[in-house]
Structures are given as structure tokens and as C-alpha cells.
Amino acid sequence: MNFFSKPVLAIALTGILIGFSIGWLTALSTVNNPGRPTVLFDEELVSSIYKDASPAVVEVRVIPKTISLFSSSAQTVFGSGFLVDREGNIVTNHHVIDNARSITVILSDGRELPVTLMGTSIADDLAILKVEKEEITSINPLTLDDSDKITTGEMVVAIGSPFEQSNSMSVGIVSGIGRNIISDLQRPIPDLIQTDAALNPGNSGGPLLNSNGHVIGINTSVKFLIDADTGVGLSVSSNTLKNILPELITPGELRRPWIGISGVPITKQLSESLDLPSKTGIFIVRVWENSPASMAQLIGSATADDGIGDIIIALDGNPVQSVVDMVKYLNDLQPGDTILLTTIRDSDTKNIEVKLSPWMGS
């Protein structure tokens, strides 16, 4: 049976031919228009960034003092780092060089150099290694950019030594900003940069670069879900490094300021379930002995008679809603500084002066 009349069939065939022609012309236009982007990133730009930056990126090789009996890896730990000045100072992660008996860096030209461990900051997972500046006179150090100016979606390049593959490069974007993880001191590291550029064991300490080839982050962590093949890459922000770099290039451990509490942010659910007198702030769970908080007689829920601890709602008049907010504020201060805590206890608001101490650890 013929379901179509000749006029209808002609119209249908004409529509198909027009659609095919438009698709063919679009494809032809893409092929014949070299200015039209056909890749996810500018290959010439990425190659140029790698050419300029990779000589300043090093592989860090660590012989540990102690070796885990449960480790299936060799007795050498590998990471990455990069030259930050012409004095021979190399940035890396603290966790790369922690527990080191000896440390060596391998330059991009294959030379192996001994290093001197300079400053470390466990709280920020950063450390500085130093080589003789005469060894790196031909290498341009990397430039630290302003990480506060980065935006989600901009292209980034990571260079490092994943799985001991020296000077490997991966390309991605800034997937998020303002992230945080907990350092080995059980203290949040704020303002981390999240990226989908591939980061693997050995990338730690290497640079995360923007499209100008400048450092916006120090690759520090990859979070994996169980049975997942890919993870979330995180980098310490370049501004975190810049703020403490003068102290890191001198030997010794940098100690961030400490109040001495463990706490959780107040959520709507927490506020309603405990009938808290505030809907925002830091609910103190524990106050550590011999800490500034204990000297100021703050109370945590673990020791409060009625099970309700104090609530911190502001530092020097600046509202805080989480421990991360508090750490970000404290990072601009020094041990020995005095701050004014605004707290709530049993619906009473108090202002309490607290003298900060150096962070004591986990």
C-alpha cells in the first residue's frame, strides 16, 4: 500500500537533502577553517608551557629512616618539586620528605644533586629543599601567580614524576576552588584548588600551572573513591606558599597559631536537635589541655555538665561558621598574638581574649 502521495514524498526527500547538505557544509567548513577550535586545548600553548617550565621541575628521591613492613614498594619514596628562585630553593610537599634519611633531587637534564632541608610546614604540607645555586644557573625558576584570581574552568597544566616518570605532563581545568583537606597535624589546609588534571603518586610537590605558565598550586593530594579509577586532584594554593615562603627558606619548622579546640560547624539539623542558642558558628566538641582555649576556660561538649559546649561565632568581630574559617583567619596571625573570641554559652554572649600558641600537633 502506498502511504505517501507524490507531493508529500517530494517534500520529505527535499528536507533530507537539505539536512544532509547543511551537515556536509558544516563539516567542510570545520575542515577548511583552521581557526576553528577542534581540540580541547591549544596544543601550541601547552607545548610552550611545558618547554618553558619543565626544566625547573625536579624529581625528589627520598630514602626513609624507617620502612613499613606492610609496604610492597621499594625502599625509596619519590615525589616532585620545582625551583622557586635562583638561590637554589625548591618547593615540595612535607609528606614527600617526611621521615627522610637522605634526599636527592634529579634535574630534568638527569643530574642528581644532594639537597639541604630548609623550612617545613606540616600544617600546610609544604617544605623547601636547597641545592647549590651554581648548579642551576641555566634554569629559570617558576613564577608564583596570584591564586586568588583563578576561576573555575580555566585551563591548568601539571608537571611532575608520577610513578617515577620524570617530567610528565597532564592537562585539565580548575574544577573547583576553596577546597580543604586535613593535614598530618589534624589541622585543615584551606583554599585548596581542585583539578581534573591527572595526578598520581609521584606528582606530589610538583607545580600546577596556569595558561601563563605560572604556578597557581602545589599538587598535594588525590582523593579516590573505593574501586574508582580516577580521583579528585587537590593543590595547595600559591598564595599559601607565598605568605610563608620567607620563613620556609630558613631552616626549621614553621608553627601555625593554635587555639586548642576540636569543633564542628553548626547546621540546621544540629541546631534543632540540640536546641542550640545559635544557628551558625563553631560548636566546640573538645578543648585540649594546656591550650589557649583551656586557659580561657572554654568548654567543649565532651566535658560540659549538660552536654552542650561553647559556641564560637566570631574572631575579632569577624563571623566564623567552621573550623576552616577559623584556620584561614589564624593563618594571617602568629603564635603570641592575642585575638578576641565571641562565644555563646547558655544563650549568653561573651567576648574572651585568647593568646595564641604554636600548633601542638594531632
Structure commentary:
The protein is α+β, with helices and mostly antiparallel strands and 362 residues long. The protein has 3 domains: 57-136, Beta Barrel (Thrombin, subunit H), CATH 2.40.10; 147-253, Trypsin-like serine proteases (Thrombin, subunit H, Beta Barrel), CATH 2.40.10.10; 257-358, Pdz3 Domain. 20% of the residues lie in helices and 36% in strands. It has 7 helices and 22 strands. It has helices spanning 6-32, 43-53, 94-97, 238-248, 268-274, 292-295, 323-330; strands at residues 57-64, 77-83, 89-92, 100-106, 112-114, 116-121, 126-130, 155-160, 168-182, 188-195, 207-209, 215-224, 231-237, 252-253, 257-258, 261-265, 282-287, 311-315, 318-319, 338-345, 348-355, 357-358. The strands form 4 sheets. Strands 5-4-1-2-3-7-6-14 form an 8-stranded mixed beta sheet.
Please provide a brief summary of the model:
The protein is an alpha+beta fold. The chain is 20% helix and 36% strand. The protein has helices at residues 6-32, 43-53, 94-97, 238-248, 268-274, 292-295, 323-330; strands spanning 57-64, 77-83, 89-92, 100-106, 112-114, 116-121, 126-130, 155-160, 168-182, 188-195, 207-209, 215-224, 231-237, 252-253, 257-258, 261-265, 282-287, 311-315, 318-319, 338-345, 348-355, 357-358.
Instruction: Please provide the count of β strands.
Output: 22
Summing up helix and strand content along with how strands pair, one would put the structural category as alpha+beta
What is the number of helices?
7
Lateral strand order in the biggest sheet: 5-4-1-2-3-7-6-14
The oligomeric state is single chain
Q: What is Rg?
A: 27 Å
* Architecture (CATH level 2) name of the largest domain: Beta Barrel
Order of helices and strands: HHEEEHEEEEEEEEEEHEEEHEHEEHEEE
Which whole number gives the mean pLDDT? 86
Shape: elongated
Helix percentage range = 10-25%
